[in-house]
Design brief:
Number of helices: 1
CATH superfamily of the largest domain: Glycosyl hydrolase domain, family 43
Distance between the termini: 44 Å
Radius of gyration: 21 Å
Number of domains: 2
Number of strands: 25
Helix content: under 10%
Strand content: over 45%
CATH topology of the largest domain: Tachylectin-2, Chain A
CATH architecture of the largest domain: 5 Propeller
Structural class: mainly beta
Shape: globular
Order of helices and strands: EEEEEEEEEEEEEEEHEEEEEEEEEE
């Protein structure tokens, strides 16, 4: 008999329970998992699925739990666990880095997004491999100020669809995400830039008149240098959303403190960092810019940062920046994006 499995969150206990049913009406509790990892806020919106490990014949189960609040960015996001599921019990891999951290976000948890706005992420099963396999998307908002964002007549949005995979790293098997391949259908006018310095890249931006609030940008920076490098989007005057690579700290960051309207809630302005697995190597940023959001995929999806922004209508510029110690860019690809409607 094929049993149906349901994963249920026990929000304040920071546990996940597994139930089985032969008919979707009568349910039996099997086992539970937790509390473990980051245990701030409440646990909610769990997910459980199996994925192949890229480049191997192995598979692992991924157990997802969303947080509200208590995430790595202090608001709404979530963590995941890698391991085995035998139909009744989930067992995390021995090399999982998490540890119990009561009432706070654990730095050793495995976070699936390091921004403040990727929450209640849910995945779809039975997607053909030709369409990307496992896909998910999340609610691009944050319960701390979801009722206060300065938008009208609508409020809130969803992320772009993301393809999910597993990759072996020096630290263990980790979740990777990349933009759903269907997003390529929205690509319009395309511009490219070969290797050069920051001044050359900015001269190219001006010559090609590259600006806008619906852009896809893929930029490969040479190995990170002291002082940082990166790009500003949705920029005009002193207003910009900053996406940076900090070679000293070994992180990628999104800084929205000067991104536009940040005064509607004290928790909205902030700087959000994701760790680089290899800080002294080239860094590729795959950035989706929309009128009121940025989604940043780092090094083929090893980390992701998602953030809302509310710039002025005139803030549509793009600009690169870097230290004076030799920041260089290996390549840039920019597409103007068409509407999905």
């Amino acid at each position: 008999m094929l049993w149906k499995i349901s994963t249920v969150a026990m929000p304040t206990e920071h546990k996940l329970r597994f139930y089985g049913s032969p008919n979707r009406m009568d349910w039996t509790q099997f086992n539970e998992f937790g509390p473990v990892g980051a245990t701030g806020g409440v646990w909610e919106c769990p997910d459980l699925f199996e994925l192949p490990v890229n480049g191997t014949n192995e598979k692992r189960w991924v157990l997802v739990v969303n947080h509200n609040p208590g995430s790595v960015a202090s608001g709404s996001s979530g963590q995941y666990f890698i391991g085995q599921f035998d139909g009744t019990r989930f067992t995390a891999d021995a090399d999982s880095p998490f540890k119990t951290a009561p009432n706070r976000a654990s730095e050793s948890a495995l976070w699936f997004d390091y921004g403040p706005e990727y929450h209640a992420a849910d995945s779809w099963s039975d997607i053909p491999k030709s369409a990307g396999g496992r896909l998910w998307l999340g609610w691009m908002s944050n319960w701390d100020y979801a009722q206060d964002v300065p938008t009208s007549p609508w409020r809130s949005a969803m992320s772009i669809p993301r393809e999910m995979g597993l990759r072996k790293t020096a630290e263990g098997i980790r979740l990777v995400q990349k933009p759903g391949r269907e997003m390529e259908r929205l690509r319009g006018e395309h511009r490219t830039f070969s290797a050069g310095d920051i001044a050359g890249a900015n001269g190219w931006l001006a010559k090609e008149q590259i600006k806008g609030d619906q852009l896809e940008i893929v930029v490969e920076f040479a190995a990170a240098v002291d002082g940082g490098q990166g790009l500003k989007v949705l920029q005009s005057g002193k207003e910009a959303t900053v996406i940076g690579v900090d070679g000293t700290r070994g992180t990628v960051l999104v800084d929205r403190t000067q991104s536009g309207n940040v005064s509607f809630h004290p928790k909205f302005p902030g700087v959000y960092e994701a760790p680089l697995a290899s800080p002294n190597e080239p860094v590729t940023l795959h950035v989706f810019v929309d009128a009121s959001s940025v989604e940043v995929f780092v090094n083929n999806g090893e980390q992701v940062i998602t953030a809302q922004v509310f710039p002025s209508a005139s803030s549509r510029g793009v600009e690169f920046f870097g230290s004076s110690s030799g920041a260089t860019i290996e390549s840039i690809n920019v597409w103007k994006l068409k509407s999905c409607l």
